Amino acid sequence: MPLAPDRRSADWRDVPSRTDPLVGRLSETIGGPIGRHAVVGRTRFFTPMRVILMLAIVFLALGWFSKAACIQQAPVGTEGALGLDWGGSRQYVAMCYSDTVPLYGAERLDQGAFPYKKWWDEEKPDGSTQRRYMEYPVISGLYQYASMTVAKAWHAASFLPGALQVALYFNVVALGLALAWLVTIWATAILAGRRVWDSALAACSPLVAVHAFTNFDPLATGFAAGGLLAWSRKRPVLAGVLLGLGGAAKLYPLLFLGPLLVLCLRSGKMREWFQTALAAAAAWLAVNLPILVLFPRGWAEFFRLNSERGADPDSIYNVISSFTGWSGFDGQLLPGEPPSILNAVSLLLFVLVCVGVGYVAATAPVRPRVAQLCFLLVAGFLLTNKVWSPQYSLWLIPLAVLAFPHTRILLAWMTVDALVWVPRMYYYLGESNKGLPEQWFTATVLLRDAAVVVICVLILRQIYRPGTDLVRFGFIDDPVGGVLDQAKDDPPKWLPQFLKPKAAASATEPSGDGLRLGDDGRSTPVG
């Protein structure tokens, strides 16, 4: 047949079946890599975005099925009353545990109570009682309340399929979290630009199948990815609003303001940073201030619990204690006594991480990309923090594929991280109940931490050897950069010399992708 008159092709788009050995081998199952003369980017229906979102839905479905065993009902109450079938420690044996299920009763949502207003007395180990409130940041708490309202309305409607309220509640929560994760993938795919297929790894991450519905973290990832997308589109106020709302769901999206600050200072774009920071503060206050004014003790519960809790099982401090018998920085604490030294040490270590990331951002010969620094900072926060709940790893997925799109390395880390869930569940089961010793669990945590550290080291290497960066290509400097993309270095004169960009000996050598790094730190195509 004659060729079509319009043969335009998106040849600038990265095609993983050609460029990635692992994807190339996997593509053999569906016919092999794309042909050398194939026209790219002309598919009408199965566009990359639609395919990636469909893949995300498949893995979200796997995530729902991985939790489904924990919402099965059975006659477990008096006179055969139906209840959750958690007999025989099903939540650990079936590895289906999700915080959303026990929190329905623990946070008094089953009573229809408004979070932060409702309180209850909880008995301490020493026999005393402690007044308790909703323990989540405001958006996460209000999301739980809204989901409970929908679940109760569903339960009251006789024409709808019936189930236990807690099961209905879980399904309502899961639907909203799935939509939030799809927003995360959608924004990540747009941010990936010419490497749009990198976001398929985020959509198909093993961590999604395990932790998409473990807690409420997809809410924060959706806001965080949306904030980065708005920044990349040079809309700093919208970026700030989304990051502020994300900070009201989980605090980590507000960490992005740190890398943006240093990069904007280096590029002379402080006006945009101030717009973003002020918008983030305004959005965060707009959500938090009403709850703070009306229910101050309930609002402060999140901060109180975080200051009083000890080292989380997944933290590096507990790993050290597990293998050495170390009693911790604070030794034996009385019930309710905060681990003051541990709090100070974890804060100090994170401050050092911030200083290190800031130094790299300010002095690297070529300005680092936003996603690279955000990954380093969030990973540093998790590694040094006293709490690394397993679902927190979802925070790193979009940042990882944008910062370091090496499929085999990222897939290895995600697989190890997801598999930590298995010994964790069987450690919680208890040795007396045929569970695993603590060291089996903490050893896998150590492997997970080591994998994250390796990725951080490789990103640092990539920053100081920008010719190895797969994202920089031709005229593409930083797809997430927004006003920073292609910007010249223009640090303020008052900045000390040791905090200014260092000259690169090979700054004008072309990279393997036809990229030349000029003296101003921008990338320009060769030839």
Could you list some keywords that capture this structure?
two-stranded antiparallel ribbon; single chain; 527 residues; 21 helices; disordered C terminus; 6 strands; mainly alpha; 4% strand; 54% helix
Question: In short, what is this structure?
Answer:
The chain has helices at 16-19, 21-26, 48-68, 90-93, 100-106, 138-156, 165-192, 199-203, 206-211, 217-232, 236-247, 257-267, 270-294, 296-308, 316-324, 340-363, 370-384, 396-403, 407-419, 421-429, 438-464, and strands at residues 73-75, 82-84, 120-123, 129-132, 515-517, 523-525.
Q: Work out the number of β strands.
A: 6
- Residue share in helices? 40-55%
End-to-end gap: 36 Å
Coarse structural class: mainly alpha
Shape: globular
Write the H/E string, N to C: HHHEEHHEEHHHHHHHHHHHHHHHHEE
Number of domains: 1
Structure description:
By secondary structure, the protein is mainly alpha-helical. It has one domain. Helix content is 54%, strand content 4%. It contains 21 helices and six strands. It has helices at 16-19, 21-26, 48-68, 90-93, 100-106, 138-156, 165-192, 199-203, 206-211, 217-232, 236-247, 257-267, 270-294, 296-308, 316-324, 340-363, 370-384, 396-403, 407-419, 421-429, 438-464; strands at 73-75, 82-84, 120-123, 129-132, 515-517, 523-525. The strands form three sheets. It has a two-stranded antiparallel sheet. The protein has a two-stranded antiparallel sheet with strand order 3-4. The longest helix has 28 residues, at 165-192. The radius of gyration is 25 Å and the shape is globular. The two termini are 36 Å apart. Residues 505-527 have low confidence and may be disordered.
